[in-house]
């Protein structure tokens, strides 16, 4: 689960701006959150509904993301910020003498991408706990051994998490992955920014071209559809814009307030 804190945008073309919250702090991008926010912005009257589709411009910490919401079905898609594979076939040591190869790719956040068989795992058969522990180790080791850079801002140049995948993307079948980020948190969606990073990786590896679609499944079989939408203008990088499609649903509505004199109501952290 993610938190989405709406704030005043600083970009004049943005309809709203958002900070994403998770169990360790904040993230620079969240694809499933912007899909949900596209629908929310229309339902709350922040953006006037248009037919057949409504465009919502959302300012995220990684930049401006354009969301398109189908007025009949409420299905939504977003166009990513420039996405690119930063490092390919990088060898890292995850245990004494045990090396694996990872790709580092950016889709609004940086991810280490590794196929399950390299870790001696099977994403369809092994437990979520085993996959999560392995991914968390990869993240920590990659942080120690690899240096990341981003042309727009040093604040974006950090490894957000690891995505363990099957090998299906190469054969252009639907691909299942598990994304582990922040404090070993597991995404119950295929991960919008992660899918973006994977499509940038597939483009860099010449597996997918402009306009080709791919289907991704999460660890609980929720689905996103993605395609390499267009070439992105990012000097020195083989960057693309990726289009990711899905659907957001409401589960409830809550109100929070501060009761005068409640010291705990100001916030607390348990470790």
Secondary-structure map:
Elements: E1 3-7, E2 16-22, E3 25-27, H1 31-43, E4 53-60, E5 63-70, E6 75-79, E7 84-95, E8 98-106, E9 110-115, H2 128-145, E10 159-165, E11 175-181, E12 185-186, H3 192-204, E13 213-217, E14 223-231, E15 240-247
Parallel strand pairs: 2-4, 9-10, 11-13
Antiparallel strand pairs: 1-2, 2-3, 4-5, 5-6, 6-15, 7-8, 8-9, 10-11, 11-12, 13-14, 14-15
Can you give a write-up of this model?
The chain folds into two domains: 3-79, Diaminopimelate Epimerase, Chain A, domain 1 (Roll); 84-247, Diaminopimelate Epimerase, Chain A, domain 1 (Roll). The longest helix has 18 residues, at 128-145. It contains three helices and 15 strands. The protein has a 15-stranded mixed beta sheet that branches. Strand 9 (110-115), helix 2 and strand 10 form a beta-alpha-beta unit. By secondary structure, it is an alpha+beta fold. The radius of gyration is 19 Å and the shape is globular.
List keywords for this structure.
15-stranded mixed sheet, Diaminopimelate Epimerase, Chain A, domain 1, 271 residues
């Amino acid at each position: 689960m993610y938190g989405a804190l709406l704030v005043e945008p600083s970009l004049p073309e943005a309809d709203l701006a958002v900070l994403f919250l998770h169990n360790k702090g904040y993230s620079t991008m969240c694809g499933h959150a912007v899909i949900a926010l596209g629908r929310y912005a229309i339902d709350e009257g922040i953006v006037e509904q248009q037919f057949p589709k409504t465009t919502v411009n959302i300012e995220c910490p990684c930049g401006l993301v354009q969301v398109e919401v189908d007025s009949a079905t409420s299905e939504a898609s977003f166009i990513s910020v420039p996405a690119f594979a930063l490092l390919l076939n990088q060898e890292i040591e995850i245990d004494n003498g045990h090396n694996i190869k990872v790709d580092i790719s950016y889709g609004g956040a940086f991810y280490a991408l590794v196929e399950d068989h390299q870790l001696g795992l099977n994403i369809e058969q092994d437990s979520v706990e085993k996959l999560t522990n392995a991914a968390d180790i990869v993240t920590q080791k990659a942080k120690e051994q690899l240096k990341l850079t981003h042309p727009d801002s040093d604040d974006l140049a950090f490894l957000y998490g690891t995505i363990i995948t099957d090998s299906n993307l190469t054969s252009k079948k639907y691909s299942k992955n598990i994304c582990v980020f922040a404090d070993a948190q597991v995404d119950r969606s295929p991960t919008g920014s992660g899918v973006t990073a994977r499509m940038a990786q597939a483009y860099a590896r010449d597996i997918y071209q402009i306009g080709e679609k791919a289907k991704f499944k999460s660890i609980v079989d929720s689905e996103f559809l993605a395609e390499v939408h267009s070439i992105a203008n990012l000097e020195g990088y083989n960057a693309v814009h990726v289009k990711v499609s899905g659907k957001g649903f409401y589960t409830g509505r809550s109100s929070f307030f501060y009761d005068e004199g409640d010291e705990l109501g100001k916030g607390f952290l348990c470790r």
